Amino acid sequence: MSDVLGRWSPARPSEVAELFKGADFPWWIAGGYAIELAAEREIRPHGDIDVLVLRRDQERVRARMADWDLYVADPPGAGRLRPWQPGEFLELPLNGLWCRRSPAAPWSLELLLDESDADQWVSRRDARVRLPLDRVGQVSAEGIPYLAPEVQLFYKAKATREKDQADFEAVLPRLGSAQRAWLLEALDLCEPRHPWRKRLIAMSRR
Predict the structure, then answer these.
(1) What is the distance between the alpha carbons of residues 2 and 4, in angstroms, rounded to a whole number?
(2) What distance in Å separates the CA atoms of residue 188 and residue 131, rounded to the nearest whole number?
(3) What is the largest CA-CA distance in the chain?
(4) What's the distance, CA 10 to chain centroid?
(5) What is the pLDDT along the chain (206 residues), one digit of tens a residue?
(6) Could you give the C-alpha distances from 197 to 123, 147, 153, 185, 191, in angstroms and in order?
(7) The pTM is what?
C-alpha cells in the first residue's frame, strides 16, 4: 500500500517520544518496534512505525499534531486515504491515521486508534479481549512507552506473516507467566487454532 500512497521515512521511536513528550494522554510505540523495545535489540528492518493511542483521546492527539498533514485510512485496509476533516471524530471501523510533517514530506508514522472502557483497554478486534490500562504498556530503559509484547503479539496473530513469526520468536523468552497466560486466553477466544498456542502451553508446563 505504501508504494501506491507515497514514500515512507519512518520516525525513530526516540523521535516519536520527543513529539509526544509531556502529552496529557497515554500513547505507546506499537508494531515491530514495540517488539524490539521489549526484546532490547534490533530484529529486522522497518518500513514504517505504528503508534497506538486511545480513540477517546483523538482530539488531544490532533491538537498535539495540529501542524501535521493527517490522513484517515478509509475504509481500513483498502489502500485509500482521505484527509482527516477538522472537527471530525473518528468512529469504528476507522482506526488508522497516516501522518507526515507536510503534504510534500514522506509519511513519518501511523496512528492506530484503540478502544477503552473506563480504566480498561479493549481490543478493537474483539471487545472480549481486555487489559487494565496500566498493563497495556511498558517503558523502555530510555523512557519510551511501548505496547506490551503480549498485546502486540495478539494483534500479530491474525494473518501471521514471516516477520510476525520472527517477532514472536524474538520476544517469547521474555514473556512472564502472566503475560503468556493472557496471550493464550486471548488466542483461545479469537484464534483457537493458532500454532503459537502450543508453544505457550508448552512453556507454561516447564
Answers:
(1) 5
(2) 16
(3) 54
(4) 14
(5) 444 588 999 999 999 999 999 999 999 999 999 999 999 999 999 999 999 999 999 999 999 999 999 999 999 988 899 999 999 999 999 999 999 999 999 999 999 999 999 999 999 999 999 999 999 999 999 999 999 999 999 999 998 999 999 999 999 999 999 999 999 999 999 999 999 999 999 988 77
(6) 19, 20, 12, 9, 9
(7) 0.94
Q: Which residue has the cell 507536510?
A: 102
Is residue 63 within 8 Å of residue 55, measured between CB atoms? no
C-alpha grid cell, residue 178: 502472566
How long a stretch of residues is the chain? 206
Q: Is the peptide bond before 173 cis (omega within 30 degrees of 0)?
A: no
The set of residues, in sequence order, having a beta carbon less than 8 Å from that of 97 and lying 6+ positions away, is 70, 71, 72, 73, 84, 90, 110, 111, 112, 113
Rg (CA), the chain: 17
Between vectors from CA 148 to CA 199 and to CA 17, what angle results, nearest 5°?
145
Q: What is the dihedral of CA 93, 12, 165, 151, to 10 degrees?
A: -50
